[in-house]
Specification:
Number of helices: 1
Helix content: 10-25%
Strand order of the largest sheet: 2-1-5-3-4
Number of strands: 5
Shape: elongated
Structural class: alpha+beta
Distance between the termini: 48 Å
Oligomer: single chain
Length: about 80
């Protein structure tokens, strides 16, 4: 089954990674997990949106459809 890790950005959403859960190599999964962990460490929220599950996740799940959401920042007056 094909899964994606996407992020919300100024232009809409962008696919960061796509993989087939049955054929992806351990090395590729490690690379995707590293990117996930880096974004979460920077303050991004991660949500598992598989089948409209819409749950915040804190660790990489290779079986999840992942949406990364940037930290909300307020403006200055």
């Amino acid at each position: 089954m094909t899964k994606k890790m996407r992020m919300i950005c100024a232009g809409g959403d962008k696919t960061l990674a796509e993989w087939d859960t049955e054929t992806v190599s351990p090395q590729r999964l490690s690379e995707i997990e590293k990117e996930f962990n880096e974004r979460v460490a920077q303050g991004w929220l991660a949500a598992d949106i598989t089948n409209k599950k819409d749950e915040i996740i804190r660790s990489f799940d290779p079986n999840a459809e992942i949406l990364l959401i940037p930290r909300v920042r307020g403006g200055r007056k």
